[in-house]
Fold this protein.
Amino acid sequence: MENKGNGRAPVSQKPHKIELPLHPEYIGGSVKVQINEKEIIVPLGTTILEACKKNNIHIPTLCHHDDLCIAGVCRVCVVEIENMRTLQASCAFPITAPIKIKTATPMVRKARKNIIDLLISEHYGECYSCFRNNNCELQSLAKEYGVDHYNFGHVQKPRFKIDNSSYSVVRDMDKCILCKRCVRTCIDLQEVGVLEAIGRGDSTHIGTFFDKQLSDVICINCGQCINRCPTGALRANDPRDEIWRAIDDPKKHVVIQTAPSPRAAIGEEFGLEAGHSMTGELNTALRRIGFDKVFDTNFTADLTIMEEGTELILRLYNALVKSENLNKIPQFTSCSPGWVKYLEHFYPQYIDNLSSAKSPQQMFGTLIKTFYAQEENINPADIVTIAVMPCSAKKFECNRPEMVDSGFKDVDFGLTTRELAQMIKETGIFLPELPKSGFDEPFGEASGAGLIFGATGGVMEAALRTVVELVTGKKVENLFENANITPVRGFEGIRYVELPIEEVGDVPEMYKKYFSNWNWLKGATLKVAVAHGTANAKKVMENIKAGGIFSECHFIEFMGCPGGCIGGGGQPIPTNAEIRAKRAEAIYKEEEGLPIRKSHENPHIAYIYENFLTDGPCGHKSHELLHTKYIKRGEYIA
Amino acid sequence: MKKPKVRNGKILFSEYTLGEGVRKALTLSREDILFEIKDSKLKGRGGAGFPVSTKWMLGAAAIAERKYIICNADEGEPGTFKDRVLLVEYPELVFEGMVIAGYAIGAKFGILYLRGEYEYIRKSLQDFLELMRKENLLGKNILGKEGFDFDIKIHLGSSAYVCGEETALIESLEGHRGEARNRPPYPVNTGFRGMPTSVNNVETLSCVPHIILNGGNWFKNFGTEKSTGTKLFSISGDCEKPDVYEWEWGITIAEMLEKVGAKNTKAVQIGGASGICIPKSQFNRKIAYEDIPTGGSIIIFDKNRDMLKILKNFMEFFVEESCGQCTPCRIGNTKLLEGVKMIENEKYTFAYLDKLKDLGKTMQIASKCGLGQSSPNSFISILENFKDEIFYHENGDANGK
Ligand SMILES: Cc1cc2nc3c(=O)[nH]c(=O)nc-3n(C[C@H](O)[C@H](O)[C@H](O)COP(=O)(O)O)c2cc1C
Ligand code: SF4
């Protein structure tokens, strides 16, 4: 589904390609092996690790990650194979013959113990001063193998400088164990390629181009590397101290907005299984922590749909009717800051295709320091806005120099799900047991359309619900059961959907100043696509470049992270396809039960267009406050 | 084309006329060539000693749009310089060996991966390839053999020792960091650019034209039952006549020392830094795959040498030359070097040294490639064979009785 082993990783890291017969049951399709004396039959090419997992045989791993291509470098997963002189890394060994495997012989155990001891000897620092304490794979391994002292000594001095130059990702290479998960994430899963091993022998380390600091290279801040780091070498740039200071300052009015994805995942930080939505409990927790107001980012997600949807309609009108600005079609979504920066670096020539609408986070920031400050009569200079996001790139986004349309920094801090969980714990609260509560006025509860922004395909679904109804005048429910536009849902890397517009309705009041009827759309087929993870985005972009089917799309949703926001770089660790699917499920389930499920039906949205953004979506005022510009970064502007 | 004979040897350093081997080979079928090689029991001369016929048969059986023959001329093992001699003095053997390999396996492309430090011979090798093209020993329809095309390119390495390891070499050829790959899949199945690739040492390939000319059976006249043919030895260290020699497999260390005029020899390092250190008491052992196998590096130490210093030198080499990807080799070598320094500074416990030896054994079986698997060899063998000198400071000469 996602990009495992299909990206730019060297051949050596890709799964072994084996010509298989059509069906595993045909001759040559599977092979009988012995694992710890037990006979099992596996499809040809299965790795030893996979075979063991399926048979409930535990093998410790460190460099292996379910989302990533093969490395075989930590050597913790070695096993013994009869008649082979050396031990073999089970994660990398494809079974192609009837071999006999033993997974826990004295030789194997000794080797694993020695390897863990070696890793620990070079792992600087102490567990209790590490933010990954109790959620560290090296620590767990040490426990599993009963490490009770430093067998081969322990580094006493740091060897590297912590790189906290980036707004998003902090690198502490003294905690790095060179598993190269981050390297494989960056080059293969995401196809960005900022990180690579540098140097040889004992000076090997993970670095960037010429060992520049992260803020000076083409990192897109997606934080996927953080999610896959087994230790404390990678983390997000943590603003907790400053946020506590603001909360503790009685002069400050501290306002927090929460995105949909953190709610679907934060329970994991409190020991719950993935897939529990904690919206109500989280609101209560935020109030107990001391935030003055708790708002729902989904409100500005609804607003984004209004702005971005209108923008799409206007772009289509210009292109189809006036033959103007044809290069602005397809319109690309712009709410994922990782994706936006990826495009700015790798496809700067397509900057005009990006919707100029700000992301929900940034729209909210602007509104809080303008509309809300006005309504509540608070000096915007005293307001501190915080955004709880599943994302590390949101930290970069709120620091983009152009994000000051309110006259102040629109969003002061981006806070990840992980960091918020930490703040809740520091407050002494056990989240799952809290009573539920709602969101604060004047933004109140938002629509379900905003909620599903969290999963890949969600923005598209939300936009379609609104655009289809505005154009056809008919209920989406007539077209899709229960208004669930399932063709755009799911986890395939890229999805493509066509929607014929057979009938058109009346032009809504807010669009009458642009055109009087929808006839120009009658009989047209709306072509849309969804891609998640920048590796998939790259495929779509290359297809557009080559004039393929995606170049004929009208609207494309791009998300920087695999799975969309629910798999964001600020989400709880660990992550894998199953966890991401459960988080998405939780979001869709919660959404089905909401009273309002379309952005244009949200009464608070109507209120804000009536009372504040009075010249309507994409009008003058919203252009000033809710839209933005991008930079053609290319390779050189970081 | 005859050249003045500067060296003496039974196979490689014997007379040879350019084109003989390829001409004969092209009169044979591919199967016949594979059979002759199998019959000769030729094993790889690069260090690992893998049977050439097995590798080539796998290569020949593989179905792919392209196949590659790579000649491994990275010659990075400390103390070896015999491949250079072949490349300078007998390039026809090396290149013809590649052509014959290409014919046998069904490959059209040959690559000579030349050690970075050997850049100065690149020009002459290129000129030689040009000459072979003129003679139609390379190019299209070689020597009139319809449909057999083969050509050779030279690729200069960047002087990393690990790039002599065949999969790291391929990574390097592809433009990646020189890091060993996971095996399986082996290069004969998935090699350069994912295609079947046979990687062979310079000396291995150089044997091939002679075997084709004279037959596998003839080749078996030399050497021992299990180690057929001759071997080139790069002899260096404390002796009167350091040089490259061609001797039959099965020669004992003592015989060798005698021939090169080594006196008061205390120890011989066989196989370079990754090899083992043999004390005087074992000088009657044979150099052969069945006793002490080697890629040909022989370093002689006389009684004035300090074995600990030698060991330290080797360990420093590995700490620097490990590609750094896998844990046992990257950190393990550092720990072994630390151990050597502890002994040097007289701050050690025997218990800790035992731990390090145990670690060495883990490195030998758990490292990802041959570098890490062989790097503890000298640590283990020197500490074991020279403990009197190293721990009890007894006169070096008295050691290893
Ligand atoms: C660290 C390391 C360095 C090596 N260096 C060389 C080398 O310089 N030349 C060489 O021919 N083989 C070298 N080898 C062996 C190769 O991996 C490979 O076995 C050899 O090229 C195969 O050719 P052969 O079968 O003809 O010996 C090295 C192996 C290792 C592990
Ligand atoms: S054994 Fe050493 S050289 Fe080989 S892969 Fe491991 S670190 Fe690299």
User: Anything to note?
Assistant: Residues B 162, 179-180, 322-326, 329-330, 367-369, 371-372 surround iron/sulfur cluster (ligand 2) (CB under 6 Å). Chain A has a mean pLDDT of 94. Residues 210 and 383 of chain A are 41 Å apart (CA to CA).
